[in-house]
Amino acid sequence: MADERGMRGVGCSCVEQRLQASGRTFEKQRTDGWARSTHVSRVHKERVFGLGLRSDVDLPSAILSSMDAVTLTRQLVDIESITGNEAAVGNYLYGELCRLGYQTKKMLVEENRFNLYATSAEHPHPAVVFSTHMDTVPPFIASSEDAGRIYGRGSCDAKGIIAAQIAAAERLRQQNIFVGLLFVVGEERDSLGAHMANEYAAKESAAHGRDSRRRFLVNGEPTENHLALASKGTLRAEVTATGRMAHSAYPELGESAIDKLIPALTRLRAMPLPTDPEVGPCTLNIGLIEGGRAPNVIPDYAHADLLYRLVGPTEDLRRQIVATAGDSVEVTFPLELPFLRMRTVDGLPTMIAAFTTDIPKLTNWGEPLLIGPGSIHVAHTDGEFIEKRQLAESIDLYCKIAKQLLG
């Protein structure tokens, strides 16, 4: 806490300092408005990947380095947090947010998994909350950087966004403007963290009354710093076929589940899908196919996972999918996140998000906006990166948006 004065804001002079953090000395440079500290990529597994992570051991504090968003992004990327394994990165962020003086709560989602909700002591019920997710898709890819980019899994989706939102919250706090920070688990899988956060917000509003109701949720996803006018929804469909096993030399004695599944999928691929003149078409991806026992066994089971990107309501679409798939297969719909149109603010470029976010599960957190640095086109790829320039610009944008919403 002795270094708290250095946490606020970003320096613009070009100086070199020596900073003592966690009992370890490392070099720090400030160049072109960014405080840069030597990045330590090696971390002890028992500290980083366990629930007992101590942020003051093994990792120099990125946030203590005058809110260096580049360094913090790399620190977060180097803590593996594939969906279901978010505890380590959550513990690291919890320690750093507490160190900054935020009232930070761990919001239990399920065993060893939790969301984080941080507010300023001066304003425990903020009208504006910045939010994004801590989990990533597999596989883990360690961080690296060059002059213009930070690379690694989660660099743009969404650990760079976490760093930018914390930096923006700190800058706003200097100006006596207070926002909340909500970081959730499970966005890449089933939005379970967002669901639990929504329940938390409902209970808090019931307990504290109108004063605790948040008015705006600024959700962070890689939109290249464009405000999303709309976000496509998601409909997952599972198509399952069953049959009867037999020796493949005598196929007439069996009933092939795969022979039932393939024509059903062919019909579904050819099925016309709805479109919206502003948002574009609904799209289909057949993401997973499995089935069979062995090459010399007639398959008794086959299954496919499908994902539709929605541009409107699904009642008619669901009926059409079931009818088109036919009676030889069973169709179920385990997940739906609806298509949304969202609020914008004046003076910012806009876009349409073809992807789905946690926003449909966070209805108790206020009117949603969607914006963040990075490109969705490189998210989930082995070359994922975030532009340092966009990272810096996003801090300014988050501050601007908060001020306009509260003005």
Task: Describe what this molecule looks like in 3D.
The protein has 407 residues and is an alpha+beta fold. It folds into 2 domains: 66-230 and 363-406, Zn peptidases (Aminopeptidase, 3-Layer(aba) Sandwich), CATH 3.40.630; 233-337, 2-Layer Sandwich (Alpha-Beta Plaits). Helices cover 26% and strands 28% of the residues. The strands form 6 sheets. A 6-stranded mixed β-sheet has the order 4-5-9-6-10-20. The protein has a 4-stranded antiparallel β-sheet with strand order 15-16-12-17. α2 crosses α4 (155-174). The two termini are 32 Å apart.
Mean pLDDT across all amino acids: 86
Structural class of the helices, strands and pairings?
alpha+beta
Quaternary structure: single chain
- CA radius of gyration is 24 Å
